[in-house]
Design a protein that fits this description.
228 residues, binds ribulose-5-phosphate, Alpha-Beta Plaits, single chain, four-stranded antiparallel beta sheet, six-stranded mixed beta sheet
Length: 228
């Protein structure tokens, strides 16, 4: 699987050109993209690249790899963002947030001229929700109410906890995450709208109409799926 993640990531990095502002996603697949970008910068094959990281983790990693970073104060638009996903459907809609960075990732996605999603074949599904719960970022104050709200939408909510600590996971913005299992989602637009209308919910991991293309690494080769 690691090998597939690397193949998808390296294919995506081919679209980065010198001088670009690059959105840097989060996760174990994006890790390989960061390695490749760093290698190309060090070899002088990519120059004047600046990255905008989507999480504290990516910021740390990019800094270690000597990828120059910038922010939205200096750049209001991103040329290409490369990010992973937890689930991808045939319309290129996504579930994201397995790594807890969905809020900043969505901010990057909406600021990007081109969003390239990199996944291995295990992430492709015919309908969102088949494989993954929807991460929902909520303010701490409201989380017990948001758990009930998710139940009222026929979801099964679970507050995300750190593996070895009896404490809820905190996002980079200091919020909690509820993993909301809705099973197969019949209408992602409708569910997204309901979550967006609810006070206390900051963001959710359903990404609709944001993706330009998905690069999927299958065991027998890499395929690019473009938006129709
Ligand atoms: C983080 C994300 C990640 O992109 C997603 O969880 C995929 O991660 P990985 O490449 O490690 O499977 O949305 O918030």
């Amino acid at each position: 699987m690691e090998n597939l993640k690397q193949k998808a990531a390296e294919e995506a990095v081919k679209y980065i050109e010198s001088g670009m502002v690059v959105g840097l996603g989060t996760g174990s697949t994006v890790y390989y993209a960061l390695l490749k970008i760093s290698e190309l910068i060090k070899a002088g094959k990519l120059v004047n690249i600046v990255g905008i990281p989507s999480s504290g983790k990516t910021e740390k990693l990019a800094t270690e790899l000597e990828i120059p970073l910038t922010d939205f104060m200096k750049h209001k638009s991103i040329d290409i963002t490369i990010d992973g996903a937890d689930e991808v459907d045939k319309y290129l809609n996504l579930i994201k947030g397995g790594g807890g960075a969905l809020l900043r990732e969505k901010v990057l996605a909406q600021a990007s001229k081109r969003l390239i999603i990199i996944v291995d074949e295990s992430k492709v599904s015919s309908k969102l929700g088949e494989k993954w719960a929807v991460p929902v970022e909520v303010i701490k104050f409201a989380y017990p109410l948001e758990m009930e709200f998710i139940k009222s939408l026929a979801g099964k909510p679970q507050l995300r906890m750190y593996e070895n600590l009896n404490e809820p996971v905190l996002t980079d913005e200091g919020n909690y995450i509820i993993d909301a299992n809705f099973g197969v989602i019949k209408n992602p637009f409708e569910l997204a709208a309901k979550l967006e209308n609810r006070a206390g919910i900051v963001e959710h991991g359903i990404f609709i109409n944001l993706t330009s293309e998905v690069i999927v690494a299958y065991k027998d080769g890499v395929k690019k799926i473009k938006k129709k």
